[in-house]
Design brief:
alpha/beta, Rossmann fold, two-stranded parallel sheet, 10 strands
């Protein structure tokens, strides 16, 4: 597994080892099967151990370890910085995925790699399905779409969005800190997407590690929301009431974001459900669990 130190990575490593991670729904398993004792032998690598801009090093790492499944969670996710750092962004999100796909094919491993809702332009007007037309609006989204194109047909691509975990820096943690400090927040009300709890994504990934389906899959918590919706709900959960969060338009943000975001890029999990998997719970349930699972570092 790459990206083992990220907020999804730490949750997936522990989940594959049979642990219940902070913020998880102990009863949720996408395929109805909890992890058995010793079911998985997990090898996790981080950017400190492998240079993800070095395709030769990545291929060597896969060939040397010869895993059954490679889960690629490593990513360049600094959306605004990517606008001025295109080369590094594409090296990690595009070229590295190609290297992992080639190495997986050469060793008989199955690749599962994570992509994003930002491959879409947000103009559809309803939740996106896997085979909808893509059209990224920024460098980050373009790099992830390019990485998808590098994958072989046998590889599994998981698109997700707005990921937040108890163990990681994310928007929900920032909201909770502001609430605890007695401060108010302003969040955009004109970008609609899909919240994804890292713990829920990890448990869904377990099912895909087992089944190795290939193709593109959307995995996120159910229901669309704006960041303002998330802030309002979190404020209520934290005892701050309805006045905690105020709506703002993206164009009124200061400083102005360098990257353009899609106005509506929520992901439909219809295909995931029709394949017999259980989709993660509605986003409000996920946010409640994440807030309940927070520790002193928040």
């Amino acid at each position: 597994m790459t990206g083992a130190a990220g907020q999804v990575g730490v949750d997936l490593v522990d989940t594959l080892r049979g642990l219940t991670v902070p913020g998880a729904d102990a009863h949720y398993w996408a395929d109805g099967r909890r992890v058995g004792d010793g079911e998985f032998d997990v090898v996790g690598v981080t950017r400190h151990e492998v240079d993800f801009t070095n395709v030769a090093a990545l291929e060597h790492a896969v060939v040397a370890t010869r895993p059954d499944v490679v889960v690629n969670l490593a990513a360049y996710t600094a959306v605004d910085r990517a606008e001025s750092d295109r080369a590094t962004c594409f090296a990690v999100n595009d070229a590295a995925v190609g290297a992992l796909s080639r190495a997986a094919a050469a060793t008989g491993a199955h690749l599962i790699t994570i992509s994003t809702d930002y491959v879409f332009d947000g103009q559809k007007g309803e939740a996106y399905l896997e085979d909808d037309e893509t059209g990224p609006l920024n460098v980050y989204g373009s790099s992830k779409l390019a990485g998808e194109a590098r994958c072989a047909s046998a590889d599994t691509i998981v698109r997700t969005s707005w990921v937040m975990g108890v163990r990681g820096q994310n928007v929900l943690r920032a909201i909770a800190r502001r609430a605890a400090a007695g401060e108010d927040v302003r969040f955009v009300n004109d970008q609609r997407g899909t919240v994804t709890a890292a713990a829920d994504l990890a448990r869904a990934l377990v099912a895909l590690v087992r089944s190795r389906p290939g193709g593109i899959w959307h995995v996120a918590n159910e229901g669309a929301a704006t960041w303002f919706d998330v802030a309002v709900f979190a404020g209520r959960e934290l005892g701050r009431g309805d006045e905690f969060a105020r709506p703002i338009a993206t164009e009124d943000l200061v400083p102005t974001p360098a990257a353009t975001r899609p106005a509506r890029a929520d992901l439909s999990t219809q295909r995931f459900r029709e394949a017999g998997f259980v989709a993660p719970a509605p986003w409000r349930d996920a946010v409640s669990r994440l807030l309940a699972g927070r520790d002193a570092s928040w």
